[in-house]
Design brief:
Elements (H helix, E strand, L loop, with lengths): L1 H4 L7 H4 L2 E9 L2 E8 L6 H4 L8 H16 L7 E6 L2 E7 L12 E6 L4 H9 L7 E4 L2 E3 L5 E3 L5 H9 L3 E2 L2 E3 L4 H9 L1 H14 L4 E5 L8 H14 L5 E7 L15 H7 L2 E5 L16 H13 L7 E6 L1 E6 L7 E4 H10 L3 E5 L4 E8 L6 E2 L4 E2 L2 E7 L2 H13 L4 E5 L8 H9 L38 H4 L11 H11 L1
Parallel strand pairs: 2-3, 5-6, 5-22, 6-9, 10-11, 11-12, 12-13, 13-14, 14-22
Antiparallel strand pairs: 1-2, 3-4, 7-8, 15-16, 15-21, 17-18, 18-21, 19-20
Helix pairs in contact: 5-6, 8-9, 13-14
């Protein structure tokens, strides 16, 4: 039926092999996903009616749920029926809460700090709250060619696929405008290189994260995404990280993103709803609730469907030290927790911004707190950061708008217990809201303060500096095979 045909997604071949066809049926308020078992799996007909020692029943039921969620990702509440001919073998709920056409509890995590081994640990501690992992695999050379990073590891991709998690690396210029513009000028070749890498490493797509180009590059940016859509393997995902634009600015790096046009080619847009405060700027929240809400409203008023919007969440804070000229330095949420405990900090929840604020003083003569690459000596500090309350406010906002889901920058920076809270929130029911009228705010007369990349201190990775950079200067088609062998040997 037309109501559901428009919202179908891609299904992995390993799941598709179980079922010869699938359909969605509605009877009144009840929605059913009907999966017709392939005849070659007829041995399951008897096993589904009894307990089995070898786990075949559990595997098939798990495959049915995974197939249904992948095929119709926007269905949150439905029953999944497994059929063999005219006989129903099993009926299981897709979800126990929510509305049938509500947000799909999608969650994506960026992976930037760490090694492939720690990436696995970061994903595992999300406790099943992650559907897509986006590691830092794709960098750019000075002339706009694709450059694989030293973090590329086939074993990580395999481990994610075993967990049912998609791997869609992000391609980034790391705020380098010259590299970003060269990449867009070289978009025909670069899009081919990315598509080839996705095929070779059996990736599930790509996330485009080119920042700090301007309105001059707007058309080229959109065309680059169009080319990727044409060249990426069928069934893979394409997403774009876009600047939060609560003020509707059309110049500078905000102007490089044509939300409406990008959404026509991308499966979803990730709104980077953070860095409201920035290095060198006045003290304030990284992502206030008003900033976040107006960023969502802007996207919707640009014609982007809520189901194509993913709300980016920060897993870091920023601190200001009294008496110092420059503040707003990034600090991971996990380090904030340590600082609060070490220095008996006062923590309050700022109701106006729905943000957390910690203040503490390290007395003269005290050793303070030192991390691997960041020290906090004597002085008075103010830290704006994210905690369970702030995360709840933003995730509930995403659910109220019926957004596709959420994404985090970046895994490994958070307090690991955060995932207990986030998983619980994603299972709750929230009343939908409508987008608010767009507000008019004058565009800045000076360029937007540059975003510092990374947004929080680099953690120790255990890799020599050379290994953190790209392992190959540029990827031509004929180089991919040799590079694949080299990386596989390394890991």
């Amino acid at each position: 039926m037309d109501e559901f045909e428009a919202m179908t997604g891609a299904v992995e071949p390993e799941l598709a092999r179980f079922f010869e066809r699938a359909e969605v049926k509605r009877e009144g308020e009840e929605v059913s996903i009907v999966l017709h078992l392939h005849p070659q799996w007829t041995e399951f007909a008897a096993e589904l009616g009894e307990e089995t020692e070898d786990g075949e029943k559990e595997r098939l039921l798990d495959a049915a749920l995974r197939y249904a969620k992948a095929k119709w990702p926007q269905l949150k509440k439905a029953s999944v029926k497994v059929m063999l001919g005219s006989m129903m073998l099993a009926a299981i709920p897709l979800s126990s809460t929510g509305q049938a056409l509500a947000a799909d509890n999608f969650n994506m995590g960026y992976l930037y700090f760490g090694t492939p081994q720690t990436f696995v640990q970061f994903v595992d501690r999300t406790r099943g709250a992650l559907q897509v992992a986006s590691p830092s695999y794709f960098d750019l050379t000075a002339d706009g060619q694709l450059q694989l990073t030293g973090q590329v590891a086939p074993f990580f991709i395999d481990e994610m696929h075993k967990r049912g998690i998609k791997v869609t690396p992000f391609v980034s210029n790391h705020w380098d405008r010259v590299k970003g513009r060269m990449a867009l000028q070289n978009r025909e070749q670069l899009s081919t290189q990315i598509a080839d890498a996705v095929k070779m490493y059996k990736l599930d797509g790509v996330n485009v994260d080119i920042e700090n180009v301007t309105e001059v590059d707007r058309a080229a940016y959109t065309d680059f995404v169009r080319l990727l859509r044409e060249k990426l393997p069928e069934g893979t995902e394409l997403s774009v990280a876009v600047a939060a634009n609560p003020n509707g600015w059309t110049k500078g790096w905000h102007g490089s993103y044509d939300y409406n046009a990008l959404a026509q080619y991308a499966d979803y847009l990730v709104i980077m709803a953070y860095d409201e405060s920035y290095p060198g700027g006045p003290a304030g929240p990284v992502s206030s609730i008003d900033f976040t809400r107006r960023s969502i409203d802007y996207a919707i008023h640009q014609g982007v469907a809520p189901q194509k919007i993913v709300l980016g969440l920060p897993l870091y804070g920023r601190y200001w030290k009294a008496g110092e000229a420059v503040g707003g330095i990034g600090v991971s949420d996990s380090r904030v927790k340590t600082l609060i405990a070490n220095h008996n900090a006062t923590v309050r929840f700022d109701e106006a911004t729905q943000s957390a604020v910690a203040t503490f003083t390290i007395p003269e003569g005290s050793a303070g707190t030192t991390f691997s690459n960041q020290s906090f000596g004597p002085g008075t500090y103010t830290i704006w950061f994210e905690n369970d309350e702030t995360v709840r406010a933003k995730v509930e906002l995403a659910e109220q708008y019926g957004l596709k889901g959420t994404a985090e920058w970046s895994l490994g920076q958070e307090d690991p217990t955060r995932w207990d809270q986030l998983s619980g929130i994603l299972k709750g029911d929230v009343t939908p809201v409508a987008a608010q009228p767009a507000t008019s705010v004058p565009e800045p007369q000076t360029p937007t303060p540059p975003k510092v990349e990374p947004t929080a201190p680099q953690v120790e990775t255990g890799l020599p500096e050379a290994d953190k950079s790209a392992v190959q200067p540029a990827l031509a088609r004929e180089q991919l095979q040799a590079l694949k062998r080299a990386v596989e040997k390394r890991w």
